[in-house]
Design goal:
Length: 259
């Protein structure tokens, strides 16, 4: 049976997550806005215009406040997600029960897609780091497009491969590196991927809390506060208007690579 808007997926989502932790506002975006957004996303950029238009008919926009959960590890996968604005953090629980942030995703980046396309439970939790807007698409039309346009597969695999490598590096670092080196490595990666360069250095375009940095590094908030305070005193990092600035990536990288 071909996929169509208004299917069981839309009906099922309407009742998802009554608690405030899943609070969201969802609405139908205009066809042109969603088509323009999808065309700008690297994972769909190679699609013909008519396919983009068809895919946009299946899309819905949702807005989440900071700290709201989009889905949790182990949830049934009903949607392929894309960040439209804001930042989404992907996290898992460690064996000890602590949250470990695997990555922070920005505009245009997909998440939850592999699980949705394979029909497997979401392997991690997605939570809004800041007020964020996301786009959700049921997997059926994407599966159909992959079958008609195999060129989509390499781009999806590129995104998946990058994330698998990053997750592997994170696990390896958590097992072997000193805490300060882990904190520095996470900050180097964020600065390289997200930082905007200006005369002060690389500026992160979002508020990175000590808690989030601690969760990315597998350490406590108290330890993170202490180390970042020392970095601030030495000028290794600085902060203005709730944004962290890395004046010298080389200095921070040296800490990350220290024995």
């Amino acid at each position: 049976m071909p996929w169509r808007a208004g299917s069981r997926y839309d009906a099922g989502h309407a009742g998802m997550g009554a608690g405030p932790e899943r609070e969201c506002y969802h609405r139908r975006m205009s066809a042109k806005l969603i088509a323009d957004f999808l065309k700008a996303c690297p994972v769909f950029a190679g699609l013909p215009a008519e396919e983009i238009v068809a895919l946009s008919a299946a899309a819905r926009e949702e807005r989440y406040p900071a700290r709201a959960y989009i889905f949790s590890e182990g949830d049934a996968p009903a949607w392929f997600w894309l960040v439209r604005s804001g930042r989404i953090k992907i996290l898992r629980q460690s064996p000890g029960g602590a949250d470990v942030v695997l990555e922070i995703l920005g505009p245009g980046e997909p998440f939850g897609g592999v699980a949705a396309l394979q029909g497997r439970a979401y392997p991690a939790t997605a939570q809004a780091l800041e007020p964020s807007t996301v786009v959700r698409i049921a997997p059926e039309p994407i599966v159909a497009m992959v079958q008609h346009h195999p060129a989509l597969v390499p781009e999806m695999m590129r995104v998946l491969g990058r994330r698998l490598r990053a997750a592997h590096d994170s696990v390896k670092s958590l097992a072997s590196d000193p805490v300060e080196a882990r904190l520095a490595a996470r900050l180097v990666r964020l600065a390289e991927e997200e930082g905007a360069r200006d005369p002060r250095g690389l500026v992160l375009p979002f508020r990175l809390t000590r808690r989030t940095l601690a969760e990315m590094s597998g350490t406590t908030v108290e330890t993170t506060i202490r180390i970042v305070r020392r970095w601030l005193a030495k000028g290794i990092v600085s902060e203005e208007d709730d944004q962290m600035i890395v004046p010298s990536l080389e200095t921070l990288r040296a800490i990350a690579e220290a024995d």
